[in-house]
Amino acid sequence: MTAAQTVPMNAKPIKPRRMSFDMMNLREKYFFHDNPILSTLMYALSASFPDGERFFIDTVRHYQKDIDDPVLQAQIRGFIGQEAHHSRIHEDFNAQAQSLGMAMDKIQKHFKNRIDTARRRLDPGRQLAITAALEHVTATLAQWTLENPEAGMGGENHSPLREMLIWHAMEEIEHKAVAFDVYRAAVNREKERIMVAKIVFRTFWIQMAIAQVMLLWHDRKIPSLQHIRDAWRFMWGPGGFRSWAAPEFKRYLVRGFHPNQINQNHLIEQWHATYPEVAALQTA
Ligand SMILES: [Fe+2]
Ligand SMILES: [Fe+2]
User: Fold this and answer.
1) Are 34 and 102 contacting, i.e. CB atoms less than 8 angstroms apart?
2) For residue 83, which ligand has an atom nearest its CA?
3) The pTM is what?
4) What is the pLDDT of residues 70-124, one digit of tens each?
5) Ligand nearest to the CA of 168
6) Closest CA relative to residue 93, chosen from 36, 160, 31
7) Which ligand gives the minimal distance to the CA of 138?
8) How far apart are CA 136 and CA 176, in angstroms?
9) 176: CA distance to ligand 2 center in Å?
């Protein structure tokens, strides 16, 4: 039995949901915990999504013709539908952030340049390995977000990001294994998968930090010592974003790993009941 056959595929259908968020509710530049470091982290993540998720779609679509399994074919269609919608919603959010004075265009261009370089220089198998690794990153961050609703959704200041994060996190968990399964079915180079992920996990936070510094620089904003302390606690304190995520990232680096070995289903089951305010924003 090959490693690809040891974990049953998640046969649940992946269904894109049409959502309507009111981006005008983003009114404060530094809305996330009133902290410029954490707010720019949210902007950096959001800025990375439109071109990043288009890259994800293209890397999976490249191998779509090679997939015989009708279940995986249906999941690919669901994955593409979900990621395309995420891209569009984050574009709207980014435009609103730009209108508040954040240099979103600059960091989106920075991310786009990096993605274009990957498209030019790497073969399709390696590009798909990047997607599979980044899907593990997003599913991990999604789990933290849904398990830490107080910390992960911006504190007192209401913004559309809270609902967006819940919806996006839920769909990321739903489709977390699709790129991985396509990689296994069409490429299946386990050493390469792990080697690419090691690089992706290391550079992910560096890229976020570069974008944060760019945003703060363009806004001539210097965080206070208190901001730095609070951001450090958020990231590295007990149960913090990064201290919790670090070992979760590492699980992906084990030979024979499959995303479905991490059970996150309880976080998204009955989401209508758990998050009625998000369900109310679904239009189709
Ligand atoms: Fe997404
Ligand atoms: Fe995704």
Assistant:
1) no
2) 1
3) 0.93
4) 999 999 999 999 999 999 999 999 999 999 999 999 999 999 999 999 999 999 9
5) 1
6) 160
7) 2
8) 7
9) 6
16 vs 256: CA distance, rounded Å: 29
Q: How far is the CA of 133 from the centre of ligand 1 (A)?
A: 13
CA-based R_g, the chain, Å = 18
Q: How far is the CA of 137 from the centre of ligand 2 (A)?
A: 9
- What distance in angstroms lies between residue 16's CA and the mean position of ligand 1's atoms? 11
Residue whose tokens read 């279940």: 71
Ion ligand 1 residue ranges (Cβ < 5 Å)? 83, 86
On whether the CB atoms of residues 102 and 221 are closer than 8 A, the answer is no
Q: Cα dihedral sign for 123, 169, 269, 197?
A: positive
CB 193 within 8 A of CB 256: no
- Show me where the domains of the chain are located: 31-279
Rounded to the nearest angstrom, the distance between the alpha carbon of 57 and the centre of ligand 2 is 9
- Whole-number percent of the chain with pLDDT over 90: 81
